Amino acid sequence: MENEILALSGSLAESAGSITELQYALDTFYFLVCGALVMWMAAGFAMLESGLVRAKNTTEILTKNVTLYAIACIMYFVCGYAIMYDGEWFLSGITSDGFTGVAEDAATYAPAADFFFQVVFVATAMSIVSGAVAERMKLWAFLAFAVVMT
Question: Range of 112's domain?
Fold first, then answer.
């Protein structure tokens, strides 16, 4: 009887480990899929904006949307991550091994997947502003504003 209990507790420990691995994989996958769906919103905003402006400004609108996405990613990487997740001002929590110190339950998902998920929302917020100022701002002035906002 005692051997059966020990064998059962051993199999429970193994299944708990596999459940933790499955939770890690599913949570990371969910972050990446949802982030990719939000990333598609940037394409939708770009198409909406280019459809609402005159034909001569379409190229500038599309350039602005692609560039602001790049700026949002860089600025979030440089200082936004540190502001969002308690740390130093510049490049906090980013090591050669990846991202650290993101949350109490960071072991349940990949921190880099969380970074991607957060950065697409930063870029989406800037895309909304981009639509509001379409044909009303010069490209360089808008990109400077994007650096400050993100």
Answer: 2-149
> Which pair of tokens denotes residue 97?
């091994």
- Tokens 């905003």 belong to 45
pLDDT tens digits, one per residue of 4-30: 554 545 555 566 567 888 888 999 999
Alpha carbons 2 and 11: distance in angstroms, whole number: 14
* Number of structural domains found in the chain: 1
Q: Is the pLDDT of residue 97 over 60?
A: no
Of 102, 129, 128, 105, nearest to 116 by C-alpha is: 102
Per the CB < 8 A criterion, the answer to whether 79 and 89 are in contact is yes
Mean pLDDT of 56-69: 93
Q: Both tokens of residue 58?
A: 């379409």
Give the CATH number of the domain where residue 82 resides.
1.10.3430.10
